[in-house]
Specification:
The complex is a heterodimer. By secondary structure, chain A is of the alpha+beta class. In chain A, about 35% of the residues lie in helices and about 15% in strands. In chain A, strands 16, 17, 18, 19, 20 and 21 form a 6-stranded mixed β-sheet that branches. In chain A, strands 1-2-5-4-13 form a 5-stranded antiparallel β-sheet. A 5-stranded antiparallel β-sheet of chain A has the order 3-14-15-12-11. The termini of chain A are far apart. In chain A, about 55% of the residues are buried. Chain B is α/β, with parallel strands linked by helices. Chain B contains 5 helices and 8 strands. Chain B has an 8-stranded mixed β-sheet with strand order 2-1-8-7-6-5-4-3. The chains are: A alpha+beta, B alpha/beta. The interface between A and B is large, with 37 and 39 residues.
Chain lengths: ~550, ~160
């Protein structure tokens, strides 16, 4: 993974000093709350329902074991012994005190981490495919480009006071696992007719109040032009994006108002001015960053192992877990292991300090000391030999980290909701619990198979409900929590926004309604058809009838 | 009035005219006029044996100034609120694309914690908001010693130095 040099370290250290000074000035009354607010947000610090919330950047989701241990340590020393992984591959602490945040940032800086631009109207953490570097369907590893974008976007002087937040995602695989097209800028690595690899550039995707699947505005962008083109998009947005209404300030609104073609034209005009200047990337820099992501020294005999098959044969629980939680690796004899943070009795994405330490140890023992955070709030060990899978599974189970539910109903995406977030209209975590309580039968869950439930406690859509196969949106009706369901959304290569099922349902009915939806699926599915395929084939009517018939 | 200029706090005798009083003649001397008004009286003003200075808000595109750049000693960029970031782009364009060499002054809601970025975008003087300590604000021009990306200052991307 990428290692800081002196320059990177200096920037992060100086940022800590700057924020310490800003915090002291705020506490001394020299900065008003209004003046301090954007400054703290640019360092990921929110003031929430109970306490500040600090969001730590995990660039494109990649962590070293040393970094994860530091995150565990911080949760012990400054928080309540746990942390929460967000849908943008970041990590959140829910209980730090404002006065301690500069010290937390200083601790993060010792392991090459920071909270820069994890909130605020600036360019946020660049996200990517959790299986980057190992996926069979990958054209090229996207992480070097994420790192190049990270550096370019960090403390960008022109784009730190944008109309609104700005999120970039990059994928190098044919199957999109990074929800690229619901980002402000989404980049797919693609090969053109001459066999050259570059980027297909999507702009103006996003969820929130006005969800859009981003259109492509440049089907092939050469790698050397990556930064100049991003700069052109951002400059057009910074100049012309709306600032009069924060709900209409995202780039998707500008793209939609101008029309895709006109927006693309304006970007192109801006880009032609700068493309051959100092922004042009040279191959030397791309190669330098790429070298940090070179594959490890794989065991070429890994596939000779027979113990894995034998263990599956003899142990049903292990076999179930292996059936759900492994992802194919491009090197024979290796697997990526998805560690579920969706055990039935914990809020989705939460992880304790002990679990973080444990995962760090297992990463050292089995996966070259690296951990990847996924946008659906799990973590991955990407390079595990199949001969090690059984012992890894046993050790994961010691800390409740072997829930065999990846991709299943209970592997939900869930925002912190009303329990923690001051924006929320309704709870998310209690609904996750309700669903877990109702659907506790593993055989049933395995029978239902692949399905993505995504849940947000308000229309800001941090839980990506628009693109859930089943989306759940919490709404407030005169002080009472209700839940609006959508069906048929997808954040993947076939990105689609879900269709509204009908009127919102009462809080205590959510799991039962999901039960009815699944009944219709089970009745209608043909052979191995997954929920989303059945839904797309039969449409919403049958589901609607079943759910609302009895009411 | 005191402003930060070339990284020092200095006394400055330019007067910022936020709004012209139409009933009176355009004031003479070192005045920073609204660009729209300057433009409307352009020919008359250019006959004056004086330096010229204008200010623009975020809505005025820099391209509107192109024909007259050579006349201006100062172009002041307004920050109606410090969170309004349009003037950063305007400054970059004036410096990098249109090679404006005169003074670029930040006016309006100009606060300490934004000066570093303003400087990087090519602004070289700052009229810090009245109620703030200007001696305190100047410290922020040195908040960072390293810059990842190119901008309107002389920085080249870090990677070209690696």
């Amino acid at each position: 993974m990428y290692k800081y040099d002196n320059y990177d370290q200096t920037i992060v250290n100086e940022r800590v000093n700057q924020f310490r000074d800003q915090t002291e000035r705020f506490l001394a009354g020299k900065l008003s709350e209004e003046e301090f607010r954007p400054l703290r947000l640019m360092n990921g610090l929110y003031i929430q329902t109970h306490a500040p919330m600090l969001r730590v950047a995990i660039p494109y989701g990649l962590l070293s074991s040393e970094q994860l241990r530091k995150l565990a340590h911080i949760s012990r020393k400054y928080d309540k012994n746990y942390a929460h992984f967000s849908t943008r591959q970041n990590l959140q602490y829910n209980w730090p005190i404002l006065e301690s945040v500069p010290d937390i940032l200083a601790e993060l800086a010792t392991v090459e981490m920071h909270a820069i631009q994890t909130s605020g109207n600036d360019i946020r953490n660049t996200t990517s495919d959790q299986f980057a570097g190992i996926a069979v369907d990958e054209l090229e590893d996207p992480r070097p480009y994420c790192e190049i974008i990270r550096q370019w976007s960090t403390l960008h002087p022109e784009f730190s006071y944008l109309p609104r937040k700005f999120k970039i995602a990059v994928s190098g695989a044919s199957h999109d696992r990074a929800a690229v097209r619901v980002h402000d800028i989404g980049l797919y690595l693609v090969k053109n007719d001459e066999g050259v690899v570059g980027f297909n550039v999507f702009v103006g995707g996003g969820l929130g109040r006005t969800p859009f699947i981003g259109p492509s505005i440049k089907s092939f962008l050469a790698k050397e032009d990556l930064l100049s083109y991003l700069e052109a998009v951002l400059r057009v947005y910074n100049r012309f994006g709306r600032r009069d209404n924060m709900y209409k300030a995202r780039i998707k609104i500008l793209v939609n108002a101008l029309g895709t073609e006109e927006f693309a034209k304006q970007v192109e005009e801006e880009w032609l001015h700068i493309k051959d200047g100092v922004m042009k990337l040279d191959q030397k820099e791309i190669d330098r960053v790429k070298a940090y992501f070179a594959p490890p020294d794989y065991d070429t005999n890994a596939a000779d192992d027979t113990s894995f098959d034998a263990a599956k044969e003899s142990n049903k629980a292990f076999s179930n877990w292996a059936g759900r939680n492994l992802f194919p690796h491009k090197v024979a004899g290796y697997s990526a292991v998805v560690i579920s943070l969706k055990a039935p009795d914990i809020p989705p994405g939460d992880v304790t300090d002990e679990q973080m330490d444990h995962i760090a140890d297992l990463a050292d023992e089995y996966s070259y000391g690296e951990i990847v955070v996924t946008h659906d709030q799990n973590v991955v060990l990407c390079n595990v030999k199949q001969a090690d899978l059984f012992s890894l599974w046993e050790k994961l189970a010691e800390k409740k980290l072997a829930t065999p539910n990846i991709g299943l109903l209970t592997d939900m995406i869930c925002c912190p909701g009303l329990d923690f977030c001051s924006l929320a209209n309704a709870g998310s975590i209690p609904i996750a619990k309700q669903i877990n309580d109702k659907f506790s039968d593993m055989d049933y869950l395995h029978d239902i198979g692949d399905i993505k439930i995504k849940m947000s406690g308000c229309m800001n859509a941090c839980g990506h409900h628009h693109v859930g196969h089943i989306g759940i949106l919490g709404v407030d009706k005169k002080g009472v929590e209700f839940y609006q369901l959508t069906l048929g959304g997808s954040a993947e290569t076939d990105a689609t926004l879900g269709d509204r099922l009908g009127k919102a349902v009462a809080k205590e009915e959510v799991a039962d309604v999901i039960g009815k939806i699944l009944d219709v699926y089970v009745e209608q599915r043909q052979e191995d058809e997954a929920f989303l395929e059945t839904y797309r084939r039969v449409g919403i009517t049958l589901f609607k009838e079943r759910v609302y018939a009895s009411n | 009035m005191r402003v930060i200029k070339d990284k020092a706090v200095v006394n400055d005798d330019w007067q910022l005219i936020r709004e012209l009083d139409c009933s009176k003649p355009i004031p003479e001397g070192k005045v920073i006029l609204p660009f729209i008004d300057w433009q409307a009286s352009r020919d008359e003003l250019l006959k004056r044996d004086t330096e010229h200075a204008v200010w623009i808000d975020g809505d005025t595109e820099t391209e509107a100034l192109l024909d007259d750049l050579e006349h201006f000693s100062i172009i002041a960029l307004d920050f109606p609120a410090f969170k309004d970031g349009r003037s950063y782009s305007h400054a970059c364009l004036l410096r990098q694309r249109y090679a404006y060499k005169g003074e670029l002054r930040a006016i309006g809601d100009v606060l300490r914690d934004q000066l570093f970025y303003m400087q990087r975008c090519g602004m070289d003087s700052y009229e810090v908001r009245e109620d703030k300590d200007i001696e305190d604000a100047i410290k922020s021009l040195n908040d960072f010693s390293v810059r990842y990306q190119a901008a309107a200052d002389d920085a080249v991307p870090i990677y070209k130095q690696r």
